[in-house]
Specification:
Helices cover 41% and strands 18% of the residues. It is α/β, with parallel strands linked by helices and 792 residues long. The chain has a four-stranded antiparallel β-sheet. A four-stranded mixed β-sheet has the order 10-11-9-12, with helices on one face. The longest helix has 29 residues, at 635-663. The protein is elongated. The chain starts with 8 loop residues before the first helix and ends with a strand. The relative contact order is 0.11. The model has no long low-confidence stretch (mean pLDDT 93). One zinc ion (ZN) is lined by residues 413, 415-416, 418, 441, 443-444, 446.
Length: 792
């Protein structure tokens, strides 16, 4: 065949991407139950328009493993899903279509989302993955808002409800007053904010009682005042009543260990619901519930003259009024940590409402055990899981007050609040549109029902991805194998161990009594070149699409293959340059090899030359090292070893050594040429295959020059069988050392590398390689057995 003259990477990448798609090279075969299965629980990205660098980085690393396993003979299931039932998708579709979900109604809006995803957003979005050469089976797709996933999510809710794991409770729930929705512990983060400690004057027996507070706007919700039981100065107050400033009502003075006597005046006010301790006191002391902040984030009628104000405005106005009345002793600026909603940065509030929870806290011991049963790559990531479990304080709040998402399959009896659950056969349901499965309340006989309007939190669905994927194959031969076993592999970022990984483990254990997967593979973050997190606000985002355009998909993947698993990585543009150089070098050296293989018939020579044996031994060592690296998911070990072998051993040394044999068979003999041809053919095939998972396009291109089948479904190389001789390794190494020394000597003398050498003295062991050594060093005469010396 005629080889391409020039390397046109763009054209090559496009050609092979189209080829793979047309030939379904990466298709998972659900009818094949003979081959070993390797199933991957791929992270479903949120459709956001385009792939970002974090996806490109993490998905490339996941793809290295998928490709390695495929070549190792596994029937690889690498699906592609998108997570589309949450806030970001709602906002995206509202923006694109210029609509409001709350005005449209849930059913119409969900249909619009599905249509927009199907026809516009997803095909464009998926193309970014295809352009990076990700080997997902793009025919195995799911979106977390479609019927398939809604059904699974609602069934999970029903099963856990029936198992007594879910409950609806009046509970202080964390609430974001800006997003107007309940949120759970995982959606909060600590933030330091500037605030004031205000010394506010309460009255006890007409005497001043100073209480320091950062939140004077909660005064109308004050239900008690607390002192520490050991607080000598203040404990005499216990049992008395304190009058709340401005609002002039009395509250009891109580004692409790949770008071920090060192903070402020050592006296604190308890307001429903100021913070976590407030909610604990409310429960422990059965204090009344006073809601002074409404769901709209505004002050309620309880705030009297401050009703309708925002939290901030109410705080300012109350401080002013306290000053006017001489009820503010002093004010000092402080910085303090508060819990904020991670999406919008608003300090969270607590509200009292009826919410759905999954009972968690009784399972902490089991949760630790489940974590121990997973294989963590890298190992230390398990700590993050364990720390999270140890720090859990709340059951999992799964209801959200949003107009878009998966509805709870639940109605309530209007008269007695009996909970009516949908029948499994009717799923998916929307209780705001569908009728309950009963016409009369089984408890009181009432025939009126109120639908649950809340939706199920998105993590409660995405924590079911293993089930979502397995259920796509219902009725196929592979199905029973899939459902009986954990999936093999979960790749994901370390930032969502507490969200996605943890919740998936819990759900899988609750539903199936087994872990969702065997191995979890935790990749690090791609940071900007200075080591900072990439973000829109810092305008330091590097788009993967731009990098693919500037270099190539292979170059970008090559870069991703250079980081150790789990480590954050500052974007190294020089690694893309190195990737680019490597693909070009592969192309050029392969062309050289092919030029000399035209008359090669694939036969093994009777006798292999010493330096050929030396290369094959090195190649076998490389195969073992790469296989070992990939088996431990340490792809960077494989990439580095292959890179080193290819550049130094193969190109710099071996190709130079055999040139004379290839070009001059008449002088050197046909047998020595055949030995070189055999070795070149072997070595190039192996190098291409070892590189194939990392740089799939260029390797496929070169491999296609003498193979019909795709390299990506070819067999992963096994060590080449021949009698390895330890002495050969020694001779070869001395040879390379001598060759390197000669080159250095020539450079030192300012001579070209082709400069003839009159006499070369070297180790006696090199006698067997005399002709190769003479040729590669351009020596006229070699003396063996003397110390190394070059004489021009
Ligand atoms: Zn918010
Ligand atoms: Zn009833």
């Amino acid at each position: 065949m005629e080889l391409p003259k020039k390397l046109d990477q763009k054209a090559i990448e496009k050609k092979w991407q189209e080829y793979w798609e047309k030939h379904k090279t990466y298709a998972f075969d659900p009818n094949d139950i003979k081959r070993k299965l390797f199933s991957i629980d791929t992270p479903p990205p949120t459709v956001s328009g385009k792939m970002h660098m974090g996806h490109a980085f993490g998905n490339s690393q996941q793809d290295f493993i998928a490709r390695y396993k495929r070549m190792s003979g596994f029937n690889v299931l690498q699906p592609f899903g998108t997570d589309d039932n949450g806030l970001p998708t709602k906002l995206l579709v509202e923006r694109e279509k210029k609509v409001k979900a709350s005005h449209m109604g849930r059913k119409k809006f969900v249909k619009l989302v599905l249509d927009t995803l199907e026809k516009e957003l997803r095909p464009k979005y998926i193309s970014d993955w295809k352009k990076l050469g990700i080997s997902c089976d793009f025919d195995v797709v799911y979106t977390t808002i479609n019927d398939h996933c809604r059904k699974i999510s609602q069934k999970s809710f029903i099963d856990l409800y029936k198992a007594g794991r879910e409950y609806r409770a009046e509970a202080p729930a964390m609430y974001c007053p800006k997003c107007c929705t309940a949120i759970s512990q995982v959606e909060c983060e600590d933030a330091e904010i500037n605030s004031h400690f205000n010394d506010v004057v309460f009255k006890v027996d007409n005497k001043d009682l100073i209480i320091a507070t950062t939140r004077p706007e909660l005064l109308p919700a004050c239900v008690a005042v607390f002192v520490h039981p050991d607080d000598k100065k203040n404990k005499k107050l216990v049992g008395k009543k304190a009058t709340v400033p401005l609002f002039n009502f009395e509250v009891p003075i109580l004692k409790d260990e949770r008071v920090d006597p060192e903070k402020g005046t050592g006296i604190v006010m308890c307001c429903t619901f100021g913070d976590t301790i407030d909610t604990e006191w409310q429960r422990a002391f059965k204090l009344p519930i006073k809601e002074v902040i409404g769901r709209d984030g505004k002050m309620t009628s309880l705030a009297k003259g401050y009703e309708g104000l925002s939290i901030e405005d109410a705080r300012k106005k109350i401080i002013n009024d306290l000053k006017k009345e001489n009820l503010l002793k002093s004010q000092k600026e402080i910085k303090h940590a508060v819990n904020v909603h991670e999406r919008c940065g608003t300090p969270i509030e607590f509200i009292h409402s009826k919410q759905w929870f999954i009972k968690y806290l009784d399972m902490k011991k089991d949760m630790i055990k489940w974590g121990n049963e997973l294989n963590w790559f890298p190992k230390h990531m398990k700590n993050r899981y364990e720390n999270w479990v140890k720090g859990l304080q709340w059951d999992w709040l799964i209801s959200r007050q949003l107009p878009f998402g998966i509805p709870f399959p639940v109605w309530y009896c209007e008269a007695c609040e009996e909970i009516i659950i949908a029948k499994e056969k009717d799923l998916p349901v929307d209780p705001t549109l569908d009728n309950p499965p009963v016409t009369k309340c089984p408890k009181c006989g009432c025939n009126k029902f109120i639908p649950e309007e809340d939706i199920i939190n998105t993590w409660a669905t995405s924590s079911l991805t293993p089930t979502i994927v397995k259920e796509l194959f219902k009725g196929k031969p592979v199905y029973s194998k899939l459902v009986k076993n954990p999936m093999d592999f979960r790749p994901q970022g370390h930032d969502i161990i507490t969200f996605w990984l943890f919740n998936t483990v819990v759900k899988s254990q609750l539903h199936y009594n087994m872990n969702p997967w065997k191995d979890c593979f935790i990749n690090g973050w791609m940071l900007d070149p200075k080591g900072k997190k990439m973000s829109k606000s810092k305008s330091n985002i590097i788009e993967p699409q731009d990098m693919v355009d500037k270099y190539s998909a292979d170059a970008l993947r090559f870069m991703a293959g250079g980081s150790k698993l789990g480590e954050d990585f500052s974007f190294p543009e020089k690694e893309l340059v190195a990737g680019q150089k490597t693909t070009i070098k592969l192309f050029n050296s392969a062309k050289f090899v092919f030029m000399h293989l035209e008359d090669y018939d694939g036969k093994k020579p009777v006798k292999l030359e010493v330096m050929d044996q030396w290369l094959l031994i090195g190649l076998n060592k490389l195969i073992k090292e790469c296989t070992d690296g990939f088996e431990r998911y340490e792809f960077s070990q494989a990439r580095l070893a292959t890179e080193k072998f290819f550049w130094h051993t193969f190109c710099d040394s071996y190709l130079e050594i055999v040139k004379d044999r290839l070009y001059n068979p008449n002088r050197r003999g046909k047998a020595s040429r055949l030995s070189a041809q055999y070795t070149l053919h072997m070595a190039l095939d192996v190098i291409l295959k070892l590189f194939a998972p990392i740089i799939p396009h260029i390797t496929e291109e070169i491999y296609s020059w003498n193979h019909k089948e795709s390299i990506h479904i070819s067999e992963w190389p096994k060590p080449i069988k021949f009698k390895e001789n330890k002495e050969i390794v020694q001779i070869g190494d001395i040879f390379i050392e001598a060759m390197t020394k000669v080159r250095a000597e020539k450079t030192k003398e300012g001579k070209s590398l082709k400069e003839r050498i009159r006499k070369l003295s070297c180790d006696k062991k090199l006698e067997k390689t005399k002709d190769d050594l003479k040729a590669v060093t351009s020596s006229d005469n070699i003396i063996f057995g003397k110390t190394f010396k070059v004489e021009f």
